[in-house]
Write a structure and sequence with these properties.
CATH class of the largest domain: Alpha Beta
Shape: globular
Number of helices: 11
Bound molecules: pyridoxal-5'-phosphate
Distance between the termini: 42 Å
Strand order of the largest sheet: 2-8-7-6-5-3-4
CATH architecture of the largest domain: 3-Layer(aba) Sandwich
Mean pLDDT: 95
CATH superfamily of the largest domain: Type I PLP-dependent aspartate aminotransferase-like (Major domain)
CATH topology of the largest domain: Aspartate Aminotransferase, domain 2
Largest sheet: 7 strands, mixed
Number of domains: 2
Structural class: alpha/beta
């Protein structure tokens, strides 16, 4: 029998948890009501959505009334950027972000730039961290929004949301965070961290793809978002369209599982991640971690391996599923702008790989991975054409 491929790409997506799937199934068939309908089928769907709203809000310490279901982070981010830009343009047209944000953030802000907004993408240092003093200095009288991710999808580097939230609130600027990589892996508290808007996708934490959400603060301050879509008024007109109840139910269950498992799970995954890092460091000369180790998601490694092209490594390792430093943007092989932002040259970027662990990773898989990567690196370094004279 063929060995199963070891999945090491949890920063790209996760499988739906069996417990999540189980709760979803009846909502495809017997409990198929439209949550807007005023009869028992509709009420059943509506109350399922209400439970999900509560569960997700609990995960981020938000109010269920401040939560909106969407198709995922990309949609949530666009609703926030375009909606805030439109609603607040009379107060200013300046927005601050960073140069290692996800394309959903960068591209949505580039679109605003083409439409008369001024965008400051603040740089990161070689560890992948932004200078928080610089953030303070960049805020101007006409700044309406700061959009900074909670954790980076490629290098796993984490921003200090509490400090950023305090800076923004002192200067009276709205703060949005793309928390797609953070939910379930880091503690997120929209009250303590003074987060005004937060967006995420379900498939990064064991809920289905094509489902996600958006938190928009309604009290202190009450945030105005000009609608981006128009329709039947669902989700208070912010995201009209019939709710995808099975997915919404799955999202809620996934959030509940994350809360329940959080401390045990993050500890276990971090220790597997460290086992992997230590094992590889011990076996492989010239292996370096990209991005800060301390300010980092517990499940992520982004490694560069001197003189080993990641695409060659991938070809040798068909039994492992991981990403390279170039394949991130829709299969293009342009070098990752995130790794370039750390100051890496093209050669280093092309020698970088991302390994992401998760709920179903095992210690056995980690040992297997250490052995297989070590073997492949040795093999590549011994190719006659790769030998340096
Ligand atoms: C995955 C991801 C997104 C986009 O999520 P979609 O599900 O593709 O909309 C945005 N930001 C970050 C940090 C991500 O990891």
């Amino acid at each position: 029998m063929k060995n199963p491929v070891v999945y090491l790409d949890y920063n790209a997506t996760t499988p739906v948890d069996p417990g999540v799937l189980e709760e979803m199934i009846p909502y495809f068939s017997v409990k198929y009501g439209n949550s807007s309908s005023r009869h028992s089928y509709g009420f059943e769907a509506e109350s399922a959505a209400k439970v999900a709203r509560k569960r997700i809000s609990a995960l981020i310490n938000g109010d269920p009334d401040e939560f909106y279901f969407t198709s995922g982070a990309t949609e949530s981010i666009n609703i926030v950027h375009q909606g805030v830009a439109k609603a607040y343009s009379s107060q200013g047209r300046h927005i601050i972000s960073s140069n290692i944000e996800h394309p959903a953030v960068i591209e949505s802000l580039q679109y605003l730039k083409q439409n008369g907004f001024s965008i400051s993408f603040i740089p990161v240092n070689s560890e992948g961290l932004i200078d928080l003093n610089q953030l303070g200095r960049e805020i101007r009288k006409d700044t309406i929004l700061v959009s900074l991710m909670a954790a980076n999808n490629e290098i796993g580097v984490v921003n200090d949301l509490e400090i950023i939230g305090n800076i923004c609130s002192e200067k009276n600027v709205l703060f949005h965070t793309d928390a797609s990589q953070a939910l379930g892996k880091l503690e997120i508290d929209v009250m303590k961290m003074k987060i005004d808007m937060l967006s995420f996708s379900g498939h990064k934490f064991y809920a289905p793809k094509g489902t996600g959400g958006l938190f928009i603060r309604q009290k202190k301050p009450q945030i105005r978002i000009a609608p981006f879509f128009f329709g039947g008024g669902q989700e208070k007109g912010i995201r009209p369209g019939t709710l995808n109840i099975p997915s919404v139910v799955g999202l809620g269950k996934a959030a509940a599982l994350c809360m329940e498992l959080f401390s045990e799970e993050t500890k276990r995954i971090k220790s597997l991640r460290d086992q992997l890092f230590e094992g590889l460091k011990k076996n492989i000369q010239g292996l370096v971690l990209n991005g800060s180790y301390e300010a980092r998601l517990p499940n992520n490694l982004n490694l560069r391996i001197k003189d080993v092209r990641a695409d060659k490594l991938m070809m040798e390792l068909r039994d492992l599923a991981f990403s390279t430093g170039s394949a991130c943007a829709s299969g293009s092989d342009k070098p990752s702008y995130v790794l370039k932002a750390l100051g890496l040259d093209d050669e280093s970027v092309y020698s970088s790989v991302r390994l992401g662990l998760g709920r179903f990773s095992t210690s056995f898989e980690i040992d297997y991975t250490i052995n297989r990567i070590t073997e492949a690196v040795n093999k590549i370094r011994n190719y006659p054409q790769n030998k340096r004279n």
